[in-house]
Amino acid sequence: MRQSRESDIGGYDWTTIILWASLVFAGWSMIFAAGYLDDGSFVSFYDLNKTYGRQMLWIVIGVVIVGIIQLIESNLYRAFAPLFYIFAAFLLIAVLFTKPVNGATSWFDLGGFRFQPSEFAKVATCIMLATFLSLPNSRMQELKVKMIAMGIILCPLLLVLLQGDVGSALVYFAFTIMLFRAGMDAYIYVLGLIVVALSIAALLFDEIWWLINFILFIANFFFVKFMKKNNIWVSCIVLHGLITYLFFREDSYVFLTVITGLVFLTLATLNFIEKNWESSVFTMFFSGLAVFFVTSVNYIVNNLIGAHRQERIWVWLRPEKCHPLGPLYNVEQSKYAIGSGGWTGKGFLQGERTKLDYVPEQSTDFIFCTIGEEWGFFGSFIIIGIFFALILRVLFIAQRQRSLFVKFYALGVACILFFHVFINIGMTTGLVPVIGIPLPFISYGGSSFISFSILLGMLIKFDSDRLYVFR
Amino acid sequence: MQDLYQDRQKVLQVAFVIGGLMLLFQCFQIQVLDKSYQLQHSYREALTLYPSRGAIKDRNGELLVHNLAMYDLLVTYNKVKKSDIDTLAFCKLLGINDSVFFAHMNKDFNDKYYSKRKPYDFLTQIPGDKFASIEERLFQFPGFESRRKSVRGYPAQVGAHIFGYISEVNSTQIKNSKGLYQRGDYSGTTGLELSYEEQLRGVRGVEHVLKDKWGKRKGKYKEGKLDVAAKSGLDLITSIDLKLQEYGEKLMKNKIGAIVAIEPSSGEILAMISSPAYKPSVLAVNRDRKNAYNKLQQDSLIPLFNRALMAQYPPGSIFKPVLSAIGLQEKILTPNRSMNCVGGFIYGSLKIGCHSHGPVNTVSAAIQYSCNKYYCQTFKELINVYGFYYPEKGMDFLSKHLYDWGLGRKLGVDVPNEASGHVPNTAYYNRKHGKGVWKFSHAVSVGIGQGELLITPLQMANMAAIIANRGFYYIPHFAKKFGTDSTTILDKYKVRHYTKIHPRNFEAVVQGMKDVVLAGTAQRSKIPGIVLCGKTGTVENNKGEDHSTFIGFAPMDKPKIAIAVYVENGGFGAAYAAPISSLMIELYLKGNIDSITRKELEEYILKANLIDKANENYSLVH
Prior knowledge:
With 471 residues, chain A is mainly alpha-helical.
């Protein structure tokens, strides 16, 4: 049974392919712009001594690989998924024994070209997870299935972490978004978001009394609610909270927190008297945990995660704490470069900031600076637009699949793409802390480019088969 | 499994769209809303502000060492490539040809040290006067920038050994300095420049400027909030008397040796001359320095060697006043002890000769006539003070005395590389002859300042200062104070160091030294109107002509200057060392040399040439 539509010649999803191709083209032009200096140093587009020349080579190799992928029976990928996965894990272990580059053992050195197995492990993990979730007896309601799914993600994650490459390890969290779609318990994500929000709130200020006060106030609110007292009590608590936040100065917060704490204890006692055991223990436990957490976040950041990461967190949340010429410099320069583009940018090859080394890593992780500087807000808008059109298109592709395997695979692709794009552009613009991961199809680098090509290449292959078979 | 969570697809879509909108908004914020990012000229550069190094002045405030402006020209390869400059005009401006230009321009860019995007040295150490014309037109050549540095200039071309020189810090120094030094900084390498590096160098400052893409300054970064002004180094006021130093170097011309003059009441060094000397500007930072340094190093007379501090000479007869004072203190001698000199000291087969002289009835007369027998006998009695069979104890006893006189050890002068000299002690003779084998007779020549005893000219001058002070000294030093700053590092020079000799025991010694000049060996060196006390020394030299040496101080009461002069191969002490000392002292105390006889003496010294003319290397430098 073969339906033919004008939009998918040969069964391929041409929307995806056009978006993809335009990203590759834009990416190469940006690498060219970041690497090109003047006519004197320019030899040819294929000059392998330059980043743009080598990227051209990678693009050709990527196209060939995508072509080969289309020729292979798609069932094979699914059948061999465990094999890919084990092979990827093997590579991740093997790479631990190489010589460290910049403090991380993430690369195999193959005669001048460096090969990063963690990029390919992402693809293998994606297929493996999709294969596992599409098994007939994989029911997400079962704890065992949840554990195995988490295990499939954590295994490569920990191996990448062992290499010392935290950025690439964090990317594996993208798969948890996919698990959410597959049916992982929602409360885990809610809790996770609360933890993140609390951490940021606690790190934003030196004094966290107001935050403890706030947590206790929420707890008090719940206590009153549980006691099913009439609205007068509830409004009293709300009024108490409002007065605390509106009318009191910062130096009296210790005193206020003590008062809120006393109210908290009184309400807890009242709750016990009324025998609301379950709800009061629950409230006390979580408010206690939250208070403990916010008081220890600063300690964790200052003492446990290492100076380098600590610095990045402070640069992100508390730039005023950082020396403007020290850790702040890179992010500030990156923002300056993007910001100096204005509405329309300085024009192709005119980005002085990126060219004169004001921005670090201007052709790999910070490639977005070149886009922002040379093409301005219109360029940023178009690139971000293409990326999110592609991500939403992949989500749409996922939705129209009948095969669960392809559906989950497509979801995984969408999540990885989203994670990479959001973190990378977010870090260059100062929205998220600096985490060194590449911008898909745009950043210079063979491993990254080819692994993303394989990821999308397999997706369009699976998608083109959707009407042939019923899996 | 079945896809039971279709509804979550919407959550995902909404979350992704929100994420995309956040990115777009952030871009909009920094690219469009916040105009501060769009300032074209916000290219920042941190310029180092070099502090000026402290000057060195003499005791009367005369400038000895000051700063001269010197410029380095730096180039950024890529900027030059981009702007396509007029190479020909540039070469003409600099006075170089284009092959030199390209040689300086094209570095090995595979080397980590050079980058096409960062400035590197193009031409270094261009003198200030030459650079003025270059700087005027430098803006026509984008990619080139200048870096001002201050190097050392010497208005008075004296005292090279004292001041030392500065040179560029090496990579180990940079690493060990914890950020104090950067590549291209200068620091003191020898002399006072090294000793007081910390005070002289000052503190580097930094200025953050904004530059446009052509490298032109557009203003201060963050209104100069992060700028730090450079702090100049402290001026060092030394104890040197420029006039005396110049005169000493003039007198020592064409002679090998050293002069050290000390103010006894403070330990301040008034002059320190090591000859042959070289002009300090020869080793000032400039492009010919390496060449000049090599020449100095190859010179057979080793002008780089500071004889005043580093040469260890046998003192000869100038040691006799010291031994007299020790003998008097230990009651070996009494001021009126007489000895019958029978032409020398004879002990078994050992004979140390003496010249013919008048009767020696007092210690003073012994010093006046420099009687060898008298001091051999004194030495014998000192060593045998615990009995003939215990010379070890006697020798240790004597060497401890000498140690208190600052002999056989470093005095701690504030110029590096001081030698300690050598005072032979029990351990030394035990090693040389075997324990229990040697007797006083093995060491007796030490009694007349020969043999194993070695003293540096600085220690000799300090000996004279001790006699002048009647028993104590201050550590000889150059640093008087630092500008207006009252640091405590110079406090160690304000402490009196006592010898074990009672002041009354110096009376006979000083009397004898007075007679040396009045009616003894140094009669020719009398200074009209000034009582000069001194002692000549003629040091036996089995390699050639004897060395001529003299220590002295003046006036006799409340001495203002103590001096030691050592002239290698000068013959009798009275021949060169004593006249030089007396001329130095006269100049210092009177301000000039006026009487006719004294002028003649000066003429005689200035004309004297004790350096073998065949040694042509020497003339290259001076």
